Amino acid sequence: MAKNVEALGMIEVKGFVTLVESVDAMLKAANVTFMGWDKIGSGLVSAFVSGDVVSVQVIARPHDDIGIVLPAKG
User: Fold this and answer.
1) Sign of CA dihedral 38, 40, 24, 4
2) Residue 19 parent element (H or E)
3) Which domain holds residue 45?
């Protein structure tokens, strides 16, 4: 069963180091939880975070099955 997520945040950047710096800034600046990351190709990588709507401000109340398409945490 998918985890109930209030809001989902995603960021896509070029390069893993940039991704790490971006996720680090998100985790320090807001009450969000890192859900995982995915390699897109051509140097592009995406990260996923979840949290309350005020912290994320991207997808408010995503579908319950969103966890199926996101990478597993850990």
Assistant:
1) negative
2) helix 16-29
3) 7-62
Query: Is-contact 26 10, C-beta < 8 A?
Result: no
Phi/psi region, residue 37 (left: phi>0; alpha: psi -120 to 50; beta: rest), is: beta
19-63 pLDDT per residue, tens: 999 999 989 988 899 999 999 989 999 999 988 877 776 555 666
Residue 50 within a domain: yes
- 56 by DSSP, 3-state: which? helix
First-to-last C-alpha distance (Å) of the chain: 17
Q: What is the CATH number of the domain that holds 54?
A: 3.30.70.1710
CA Rg value for the chain: 12
Q: Tell me the HSE value of 29 on the side-chain side, using a 13 A CA sphere.
A: 10
pTM of the model: 0.68
